[in-house]
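User: Reviewer 2 asked us to show a designed sequence for the structure in our supplementary figure. I'm pasting the structure tokens here. Could you produce the per-position amino acids so we can include them in the response letter?
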């Protein structure tokens, strides 16, 4: 590939949420595998300083600003007055050879308020990509309404979003509901989450060598988070079941608590403190490398997937569609429950049952070929749209 090839990677958020950081890292890794190590990648991020290791990072319009600056930027979007970061983004996209949307779940909205927030944030990048005329590929996403019948502005917004995405070279979605939302767009393809793709691509190598096999569960790490915007009854069930889960685990094994996010409005440390946990808190990455547990139970999807990539089986308490899609693609859909209605006793039974860890890896191995084929297909598509036919 020509060393001057330039790729813009849009919609990065913040490494303060390690799940979002992982998705950016995996997007970059896939691009380098497809196009070579010498390509130039410019990351457009809401928290550009957190991605400074990439050296080529620019501010995302609106999202990267704070306080009055964000209000002014949002007003500029409403009035169609390009602010400096927006103008810079358009200039960047004039220069690049390929535009890529990082994998994730940033193109969803449940109601009018969330649709408006999305329109003032990520939609600016989406519109810039569409208006640039450059080839664009969006890596595996969760897209569209989280409710079957969004109202008012949300409904209009999703219709516009669907039309805009239909103009890109390829849009990959990581769950069936997103595929249904974009069923009118012929460029939509179903593919696993980037971390699932990475698992299939690396299994047999590092993941296989470091995976932990034990018959006796002596250490479980928990990755917990604040309940999402459920109704009062769901939040109470989640809190009660979480307390029961912690209590039962402590009767059986060592329990540690891991942090996945410390970003704005998404602070795991504050949540742990609020529910009365005063134990030492470390990042999941630190725990996986320095005191590897036998099993992880994670409410955050990419906490679960990061654990699996490190060779530790993970039970996922999912609060969104993405979790069920990812675990189905992994072939371990018996290790996921709805976080809004999970049973602590069922989770305990699953991870402590005889040969649970052996069976987890055996189940995951059954889907490796199909998932590797998905990985190779995306890499081939990236090469195709950039005119690179190298293997």
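Assistant: Here is a per-position design you can include in the supplement:
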């Amino acid at each position: 590939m020509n060393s001057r090839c330039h790729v813009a990677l849009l919609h990065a958020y913040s490494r303060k949420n390690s799940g979002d950081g992982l998705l950016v890292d995996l997007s970059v890794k896939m691009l380098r595998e497809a196009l070579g190590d010498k390509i130039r990648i410019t990351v457009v991020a809401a928290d550009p300083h957190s991605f400074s290791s990439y050296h080529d990072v620019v501010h995302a319009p609106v999202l990267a600003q704070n306080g009055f600056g964000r209000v002014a930027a949002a007003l500029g979007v409403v009035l169609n007055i390009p602010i400096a970061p927006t103008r810079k983004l358009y200039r960047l996209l004039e220069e690049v050879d390929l535009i890529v949307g990082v994998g994730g779940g940033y193109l969803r909205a449940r109601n009018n308020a969330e649709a408006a927030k999305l329109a003032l944030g990520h939609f600016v990048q989406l519109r810039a990509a569409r208006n640039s005329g450059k080839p664009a590929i969006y890596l595996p996403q969760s897209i569209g309404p989280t409710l079957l019948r969004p109202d008012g502005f949300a409904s209009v917004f999703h219709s516009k979003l669907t039309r805009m995405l239909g103009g890109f070279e390829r849009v990959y979605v990581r769950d069936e509901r997103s595929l249904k939302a974009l069923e009118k767009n012929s460029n939509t393809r179903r593919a696993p989450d980037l971390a699932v793709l990475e698992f299939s691509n690396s299994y047999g190598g590092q993941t296989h060598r470091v995976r932990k096999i034990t018959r006796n569960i002596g250490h479980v790490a928990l990755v917990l988070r604040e309940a999402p915007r459920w109704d009062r009854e769901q939040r109470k069930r989640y809190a009660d079941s979480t307390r029961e889960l912690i209590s039962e685990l402590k009767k059986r094994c060592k329990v540690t608590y891991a942090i996945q996010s410390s970003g704005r409005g998404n602070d795991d440390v504050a949540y742990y403190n609020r529910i009365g946990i005063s134990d030492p808190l470390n990042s999941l990455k630190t725990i996986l490398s320095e005191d590897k547990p036998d099993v992880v139970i994670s409410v955050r999807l990419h906490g679960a997937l990061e654990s699996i990539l490190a060779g530790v089986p993970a039970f996922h308490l999912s609060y969104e569609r993405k979790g069920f899609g990812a675990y189905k693609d992994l072939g371990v859909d018996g290790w996921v429950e709805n976080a809004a209605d999970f049973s602590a006793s069922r989770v305990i039974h699953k991870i402590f049952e005889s040969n649970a860890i052996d069976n987890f890896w055996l189940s995951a191995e059954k889907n490796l070929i199909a998932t590797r084929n998905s990985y190779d297909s995306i890499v081939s598509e990236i090469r195709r749209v950039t005119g690179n036919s190298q293997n």
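For the response letter, you might also mention the following. The CA atoms of residues 14 and 241 lie 30 Å apart. The chain is about 50% helix and 20% strand.
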